[in-house]
Amino acid sequence: MTTTSSDRLSRLLALVPYVVARDTVSVAEAAEAFGVTERQLRDDLSLLWCLELRSPDPYCPIDISYEGGDITVAEAESISRPLRLGADEAAALLVALRMLAELPGAAERDALARLVAKLEAAAGEAAAAARQVSVEVDGRTGALGQVQEALRSGRRLHLRYYVAGRDEYTEREVDPMRVLVVDGRTYLEGWCRRAEAVRLFRMDQISAVSVLEVAARVPDGVRGRDLDAGLFQASAGDVRVTFELTAAGRWVSDHYPCESVEELGEGRSRVVLRASDPRWVRSLALRLGEQARVVAPPELVAAVRGDAERALALYA
Amino acid sequence: MSRRKTDRLLHLVVCLLATRRYLSAEQIRRAVPGYPDSPEAFKRMFERDKDELRELGIPLELGSDEDDEVGYRIPPHAYELPDVHLTPDEVAVLGLAARVWQQTSMAEAASGALFKLRAAGIDADPAGSPVLQSRVAADDPAFQALYEAVRDGRPVAFDYVKMGHPEAQRRLVEPWGLTSRRGRWYLVGFDRVREATRVFRLSRIAGAVAGVGPDGSVRVPEGVDIRAVAFDFAERPAERRTARVRLRRGGAQGVRRFASAVVPVDEEWEEADLSVWDAEWTASSLARFADDLVVLDPPDLRDAVIRHLKGVLS
Fold this sequence. Notes:
By secondary structure, chain A is α+β, with helices and mostly antiparallel strands. Chain A has helices at residues 5-20, 27-33, 38-49, 87-101, 109-123, 144-153, 251-255, 278-288, 298-313; strands spanning 24-26, 63-65, 70-75, 133-135, 155-163, 168-182, 185-192, 197-202, 206-215, 239-245, 258-265, 268-275, 292-296.
């Protein structure tokens, strides 16, 4: 949390009801809850302790003590309840919760819907902005129920999984780690026993799933990706591909993370992207048709030409 | 900013919450420590303080009791978060929501909301659930300005690069709402120049978004479905038709789950029906199967695939 005076005021106003709701709280616990150091929190407490209105007669509306490291509030009258949620606060929670509540088959769906209703009621008018913002989730999550069941019971999954870049169905056993809902798509992250590595499986590309009678065993020390660093991280084995896009092909740079985008004038651009599998690049180039041209590396330029020529030969 | 100012604002809030009567500016100056004696300096400082409180969402009420002069108070019922009682499973998903905006301008609002709920006695784990995590990106530079314009009902102007048009055009828009699909944000609103409902992709907005009218001047039509406006229009399907295609045995796996009436032809090929709509769109999605798929019928789709593949070579 930053330390502008308005943030600090918000914290001070929340601190009293926080203690009131719990009778006694240690300084350490409160500092952790509000994400500040104990020293900062003690300074907050001293502000509250000294609070005195001077007129018409001097009086102290708050009776707070924190001797011995335990905070108690004997009297707080007017600020014993937290401030209402603001429009941004309501939007941040409600937009996210409504998105998750849309996930077909999610175990949490019912709790999400109830929570949305309660927070809307509590936010009152402040909930209005939240209704104007929404995030759609792809509803093709038929495998989600089984995946969550496996996570709950700690069991292994068997998947039939379509790999679009290679146009192939694969059969694998996966020890599930987490379900991720990122930018409207749902993924299973798990230890793939075939690849012997952590893999991400798009829920809509799982064509069959079953929970096995085997305990999941994710090897020690294996961890999921850091979501705040992005879902897809470049790896050393990636190919770097250069595309020249026409104005109509511009969606490619909106859609896929590009290493660089260079404007060529008249809406055309040159982009460099990374791909873990050259076959995915070939399939993208075929889909793009005249909207794009692969210009590097040369072996991919040749492969794409070869694909198109062989396909055209069938229409001769 | 200073500890002294925080202290003054804290006193001001407590003072105005504790009073039932409206307090005049002068009464406030006497009750709250830290205001200067000079009337002019006090007035300026008090104005700024009122703005700060409003920005925090603290409801400052202006009014008067009987014949008294105009004064201020904070009505507790408008200030206080109403009671919220959550079941354990609701508390668990609350923590989940708090992490969704982690990398965006909404992150601070999400943690602010959680602080308030924690102050109401609700102990949501801000780490969320270990087995379900969610993130939504909002990294388009225009996002924050447009979100605020939507929230405040303020018309906006921005430069927009339309698909297929190289030059950016100035747009004047009454923003109705924002919606995201597959990681891309869209603004839905009324375009004042074109006098029609329009959808804008945030990634195509060039430069800054300017406010061009007072807050509260945008009227969002009753019952408008922002998402339907944004997406139904983009994906209006033409009439569906049946196409006959040849699939290489063991190949074109990606279309097989949409194929019907699959029959063997010879050692190498099978034939199948596909339900298709727009020929150009279908051609581009079938082209990716290269020489694992041949369109036999209808002729316009067959021609579209040929044209599309020639486009790859051009």
